[in-house]
Amino acid sequence: MERKELNNKIFSSVKWASITEIAAKLISPISSMVLARLLSPAEFGVVATVTMVTSLADVFTDAGFQKYLIQKKFNSDRELKESANVAFWTNVSISVFLWLIICIFSDSIATLVGNPGLGSVISFASISLVLTSFSSIQMAIYKKKFDFKTLFFARIIGAFMPVVVTIPLALLGFSYWSIVIGTVATNLSNAIILTVKSDWKPFLFYKFSLLKKMFSFSMWTLVETILLWMTSYIGTFIVGRFLSAYYLGIYKNSISMVTSIMNIIAASTSSVLLSSLSVVKNNNHEFGDILYSFQKSVGLLLIPLGTGVFLYKEFVTNILFGSQWMEASMFVGLYSLAMAFSILTGQYISLTFTAKEKPKLSVISQILYLIISVLLLLFTVQKGFIYLIIATSVARGCFGLINILLGKKYIGLSPTRMLAGMVPSVLGSAAMAIITIALKNISDSIGWTLAMILICICVYVAVELIIPQSRAIIMPIIKNTAAKIKKFTGLRKHNKNEMSK
């Protein structure tokens, strides 16, 4: 694939992926904001434990085949379809088996995770395993072909499910059941839409030699995904065992909300970045250029976003959750800072490991991150909630540092180029912090807080336009946007004149 053609596909994919993630992630926090006012932190704690069980089973359902299909260069379309078929039937078989196991031992599982009596909830929630097995391979093929437009429609419909299902059920008093039922409805809609619109449909074909070939790569990806689950839910397990459901709800819901906000930017680029890196994986120069370009460009949005949430953490927490969640404000702020750094380094560099077909590096990374997380959480969990949230945020930042070191040694990435690309964003964010510290004592009203946020945005943009490195990224976007606005207004004026004749 020529570089120009690749760039065009990247641009189109980023456009649709960005629209998808922005729309979905805007809808998700809004529904979460409503639910946070309808359900208590303790009820969110119950949902967290149920999700912990179902998400672990879902790890085994995918078995790492999705990443294999995305990054593998197939010799023909037939080879791709046959591999997809083997992956599909394997996923379906595993998911049905795991669902039956969970249903049989649901009461024991509920007791193990610290919520006896929730066996029926876990059994029902696990229906999602079968549903996601139908959409997982379809999603991989869409991403493989840079068809993010189709994924957009499926994701948007799924994003509206909490609005039309979860919130009404919560209003009717269904408690945590409302979230569980809403999740199943979302997975059902994804499975139906992606299967119906796909050119590829599963057929009766299976080849164990293909499975063996796929699993030789997917084995390490599966191990990595299990470790990802452990790093994502080890905090949930530890907090659930040592603290109350109230603190578990605050802990998990804060992480989920911050991740959802950050992923408005990050998730829209990660899939495109992986697909792009996989295409040029044998060209180290282009490989590095694409990664550094993504880090630099996304950092212009992600770093000030994390800084802004930290600077206005009480205001943001009150908006997102309501007054009963104010104890979460420090966690929301600190974790936002840590996530901004972790996404640009840890998450993006992990994609280079996959693109270079070195999944063992991701496994090593997750093991080191897991060890650090467990040690910090066990050391702080009984000292107080504030120490726990600091430890969680520090551990998240360490994930980025781990991948920087691994990327330098085994992929040949340059930490200097990475960090240098983030300097403009850091300088602009520092200017935001100075302005906030200087002005925050004038008033604590909502109006003044909103005014300070607007001032911070203006100051940040001004700083970035002064710095040549960031100006080179921002100005083409401004010019392109201005040209489109001019074209749109000119078209409207022309149509108006035609109608008046």
From TrEMBL:
Coiled coil: none annotated. It is found in: Cell membrane. Its main location: membrane. The chain crosses the membrane at residues 86-109, 152-170, 176-196, 217-243, 255-280, 292-312, 332-349, 361-379, 385-406, 418-439, 445-467. Keywords: Cell membrane, Membrane, Transmembrane, Transmembrane helix. It holds the Pfam family Polysacc_synt_3. It is a multi-pass membrane protein. One of its GO terms (cellular component) is plasma membrane. Belongs to the polysaccharide synthase family. This is Lipopolysaccharide biosynthesis protein.
